[in-house]
Amino acid sequence: MNKRGHLWGIGVGPGDPGLLTLKALEALKEATVIMAPLASSREESAALQIVKEWVDETRLRVYGFPMTREPDSLAACWREVADEVAALVEKGEKVVFLTLGDALTYSTFNYILQQLAGKIPPECVTTIPGVTSFAAAAAAENFPMVCGEELLAVIPLPDGPLSRVRGLVRESDTVVFMKIGNRLKELMAFVNEEFPDRAAVFASRVGTPGQYLCRDLDRLPEGVDGYLSVLIVRKAGIKP
Ligand SMILES: C[S@@+](CC[C@H](N)C(=O)[O-])C[C@H]1O[C@@H](n2cnc3c(N)ncnc32)[C@H](O)[C@@H]1O
């Protein structure tokens, strides 16, 4: 009988391969199978782009996932991917599962872990954390994000009106908005209302060749979109 393999869920950071951890690199080199996510709306996997220097086609498996929030289709998709991962590990393969940014911060690997429960022993799974998009965005602008006892809220834009998160926004000192998509204008109107004395960083595609950074939200050019973007807003501004 084959010896069981292993699964590493690795966060590859948001764009710059230089932010990959040594552990992630070790796992990538050791892997016999590398699984990369591809949203059905895209031609390339953003996570794979970051590590492509270390990934040869023979070890690569790209899996598609639907761009839907419909829970049943999503659950079916994650179950299928998790079953494939479990079968590979059972066969003795060393599987790396790529995720963008950090492995457990709004990442697909969260769902895979939940679906894998009971299918492979916990000691066969290792999560390697990565740099989140918002950590890289703050760093790119040397932007002091939170200090002392200040409260940080990380908010993916909710379905429905942004007023749904107003309470949390008002209780926090700094807010990170993620998953902005096509709602950048709506978010700017909300931020102007809630944070008149703010300091901010808008960061799109941080760490990639298409990176765009902006500190002055009043001067955000018309054509900028919210895809693969984060907005960090510090309520009290930045004081010397
Ligand atoms: C599915 S979540 C993944 C989050 C990721 N695991 C992390 O740790 O940042 C996708 C969201 O992450 C943010 N994101 C990911 N990569 C980014 C990048 N290179 N630049 C700016 N935002 C990014 C965007 O808000 C995007 O909508």
Automatic annotation (TrEMBL):
Keywords: Cobalamin biosynthesis, Methyltransferase, S-adenosyl-L-methionine, Transferase
Enzyme Commission code(s) on record: 2.1.1.151
CDD domains in alphabetical order: Precorrin_2_C20_MT
Family matches, as Gene3D superfamilies: Cobalt-precorrin-4 Transmethylase, Domain 1, Methyltransferase, Cobalt-precorrin-4 Transmethylase, Domain 2
GO molecular function: cobalt-factor II C20-methyltransferase activity; precorrin-2 C20-methyltransferase activity
Any one biological process term the GO annotation gives: methylation
Residue ranges annotated for the Tetrapyrrole methylase domain, each copy included: 7-214
Top-level taxon of origin: Bacteria
Keyword Methyltransferase in record: yes
Family: Belongs to the precorrin methyltransferase family.
Record-linked NCBIfam families: cobI_cbiL
Name recorded for this polypeptide: Cobalt-precorrin-2 C(20)-methyltransferase
Provenance organism: Pelotomaculum propionicicum
Gene that this sequence comes from: cbiL_1
